[in-house]
Each structure stands twice: as C-alpha cells, then as structure tokens.
C-alpha cells in the first residue's frame, strides 16, 4: 500500500515491517518539472518510516542549500576555484596545498556548518602531537583555514567565521639571536664576495655570485639561461624559476618577471664563466646554446635545487658564515670513517637577497627602485621585511640632527 504525503511518499513493502520512502522535489537546473528523489528502504514500523521520511527531506534540503558540505570538500573546491580563476600564481597554489592537505586530514569530515572553535583547537592539538606540526606551521594552517571560512561566510553557508573565536594562534617571533645567526652583514658580504672571486668557477659558485650581486631568488638564479643574459647591455631578463619540481615555470608573481641591470664586475664574471662553461661542455660533447642553463651542473643541465642547497650550506660553513650543531662519526660499509653533520645554523640563500635590499637602501637607492629590482609585489615587503635595520642610515640621521641643533645654537 502506498500513502502520499504532502511532499513525500511511503510505500509498504512488507506489512508492518518494511517500507520504501521518497521525497517530492521542486524543479531545478537538471529537472524542469516536479520530480521524485531516489527511494530508500526502511526497516521498521509505519511510525519509523514516517520519521525516516522527515529526516530524508531535511537531509535533501540541507544538501541543496550546501549545508552538508564538509570542510574537506569546501577547502578543495576553494583551492580548485582559485586555480581555475588564475587570481594567484601557481607557486602560491602549490605552497598552499600543504596547508590544505592538513586541513583535509584533520578537519575534512566535519561539516562546514558544524565547525566551531573547539573542533579547530582540537585539530591543531592533533597536528602538533601526531603530525609534528610546529607553531609556525599551525599558524599557516590557521591563516589558510580562516581565509577559507571567510569565503564560506560570504557564500552565506555560515553566520560567522569560527576561526575568529580561536585565540593564541600567532606567528612565533624570531629571537634576536636567531636573527643574528641567519643574517649576513655588510662586512661579511663584502668579504664573501672577495672569497667567491678566488673560487674556481662552476654553476654553484655562479649561482651564489648572482644571489649576492643581484638579489635573485634561488629559483630565479637556477632558471637563468644564456638568452636571458644580455652581456652587451649589462642586463638580466628574469622570465622563469626552477624549483623542487625540477621544471621551468613562471616566476612567483607578475612583478617577478622583470629586467634588471648588472654591474661591470658581474658582467666580467659572467663573461669568464660563459667561456669556461663552453669549454667544459665541449669536453663532454655538448654545445653551449642560448637555452643552456647559466648555473649548470657537471652533466651540463640545470642544477638540482635540493643538491644545490646541501652544497650551499656546507659552503657557508666552510666560509665561516654558518655552523653545524651536531657531528657524528661512523664507519661506512667499506670501512672508511665518515663524518655526518646536522643541525645547520646560519643564513639561507635568501639571506643574500636580504643583503641586497638592505645595502641598496642604506646606499641611498630609493625603495621603489629596490622593489622593482627584487621583483617584490608590495613596497611594504621591501621596507618592512628586508630593510629592517639599516645602521648606516641611522647614524647619518643622528649626525644630521646634530648638525641642525648645532646650527640653531650658533644663531
């Protein structure tokens, strides 16, 4: 026996013991007229079948309104939409994916409408305990989740952003000691340049020279090919970057695609290297071409970013810019004693970029020029992050004020 409800139907399949239910649905994008939902089987009596029909109707209503969407589904859709719209770079999409993956892993099954501060805090605790997430990593996840939930608020899925009620998630402050250990001073930079000049040229040394002489990012330096180098007009064209994926891709931002001037010494340095590289290529039967990498490896190809970073850390340690905190001696399979060093403390390749910005600002170069040279999207990045402490300009400011006061007293 079938009984029609106002917006549903209950069909008795087995008297008093088993029923089929379905819901009457209004026209939508796929159906131009009123239509039935898929039927469901219910084991139980008539009252239980009626209750199941009511629950089924509510479930379909929430599904239609988007209330059943989970945090994982919404986060992945958020990421996919940003990629499709092209409003952010592919590099940003790739970097954000790590945070998206953690959100999906620890909050993915929670419905967006059910997400609250307690669930978020519990997820962050699990990230720390079971996933080894550092305070900085949790801060990044929180910022990304807050951005996603703000979009859910704008989509009217939720009435408020649940991340706003989570307190104490702040980016860890870098200690003064840490700042000192990861920076390269003007004196260190000038001494470093002198040492590099004495080193036999190879692709790795050239990359470091470019970092300190031009402020290129690691990926930008490793992506340079000879057609990007205009030695006659003393310019570099920054068109690509070469990262851990080991493929050439577009720069970080639109402003990262740029042309910058290089000094005469860098021109001479690159001329010598181009000639030396041509000889090295010919020795292994390879012809140096316009698309040959400037910073090449022993196989005449692009440098592996990870291998380069490992070499660069050891190079910094050797030149007195960094140190290892741990040293372990062991005997390998061939009976040879080896030394394994871990716990690197010191500047990164990016520190060369910081040196460039700070020294240029200290030397009187206007910030807008520094911004364009380094390819920063925002001038604030140039001023706030890279030119934090310019001691020479501070001293000049003090001397200038002293001269003004002296002039006033003499009047």
Provide the structure class. alpha+beta
CATH class (first level) name of the largest domain: Mainly Alpha
Return the CATH architecture of the largest domain: Orthogonal Bundle
Total beta strand runs = 12
- Mean pLDDT value: 86
Largest sheet, in brief, is: 5 strands, antiparallel
Assembly type of the chains comes to single chain
- Name the overall outline: elongated
Summarize the structure.
The protein is α+β, with helices and mostly antiparallel strands. The chain is built from 15 helices and twelve strands.
Structure report:
50% of the residues lie in helices and 14% in strands. The protein has 411 residues and is α+β, with helices and mostly antiparallel strands. The chain has three domains: 2-65; 71-165, Orthogonal Bundle (DNA polymerase, domain 1), CATH 1.10.150; 182-350, Intergrase catalytic core (hpI Integrase, Chain A, Orthogonal Bundle). Strands 1, 2, 3, 4 and 5 form a five-stranded antiparallel sheet that branches. It has a three-stranded antiparallel sheet with strand order 6-7-10, with no helix packed on it. β2 (8-14) and β3 (18-25) form a beta hairpin. It is elongated, with a radius of gyration of 31 Å. It starts with a strand and ends with a helix.
């Amino acid at each position: 026996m079938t009984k029609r409800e106002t917006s549903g139907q209950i069909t008795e399949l087995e008297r008093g013991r088993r029923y089929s239910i379905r819901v009457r649905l209004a026209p939508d994008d796929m159906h131009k007229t009123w239509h039935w939902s898929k039927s469901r089987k219910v084991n139980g009596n008539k009252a239980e079948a009626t209750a199941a029909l009511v629950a089924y109707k509510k479930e379909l209503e929430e599904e239609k309104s988007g209330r059943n969407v989970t945090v994982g589904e919404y986060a992945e859709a958020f990421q996919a939409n940003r990629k499709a719209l092209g409003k952010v770079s592919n590099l940003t999409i790739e970097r954000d994916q790590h945070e998206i993956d953690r959100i999906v892993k620890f909050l993915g099954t929670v419905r967006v409408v059910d997400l609250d501060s307690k669930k978020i805090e519990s997820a962050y605790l699990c990230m720390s305990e079971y996933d080894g997430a550092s305070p900085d990593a949790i801060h990044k996840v929180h910022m990304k989740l807050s951005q996603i939930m703000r979009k859910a608020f704008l989509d009217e899925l939720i009435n408020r952003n649940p991340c706003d009620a989570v307190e104490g998630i702040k980016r860890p402050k870098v200690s003064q000691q840490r700042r000192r250990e990861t920076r390269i001073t003007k004196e260190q930079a000038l001494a470093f340049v002198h040492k590099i000049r004495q080193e036999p040229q190879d692709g790795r040394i050239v990359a470091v020279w470019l970092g300190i002489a031009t402020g290129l990012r690691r990926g930008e330096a490793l992506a340079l090919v000879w057609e990007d180098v205009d030695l006659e007009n003393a310019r570099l064209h920054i068109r690509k970057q070469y990262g851990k994926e080991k493929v050439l891709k577009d720069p970080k931002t639109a402003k990262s695609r740029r042309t910058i001037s290089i000094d005469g010494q860098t021109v001479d340095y690159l001329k010598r290297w181009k000639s030396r590289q041509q000889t090295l290529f010919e020795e292994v039967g390879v012809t140096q071409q316009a698309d040959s990498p400037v910073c090449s490896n022993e196989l005449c190809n692009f440098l592996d970013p990870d291998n380069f970073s490992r070499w660069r850390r050891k190079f910094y340690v050797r030149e007195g810019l960094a140190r290892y905190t741990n040293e372990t001696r062991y005997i390998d399979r061939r009976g040879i004693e080896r030394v394994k060093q871990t716990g690197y403390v010191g500047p990164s390749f990016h520190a060369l970029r910081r040196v460039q910005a700070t020294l240029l600002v200290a030397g009187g170069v206007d910030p807008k020029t520094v911004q364009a040279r380094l390819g920063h999207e925002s001038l604030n990045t140039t001023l706030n992050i890279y030119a934090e402490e310019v001691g020479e300009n501070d001293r000049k400011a003090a001397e200038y004020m002293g001269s003004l006061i002296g002039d006033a007293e003499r009047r």
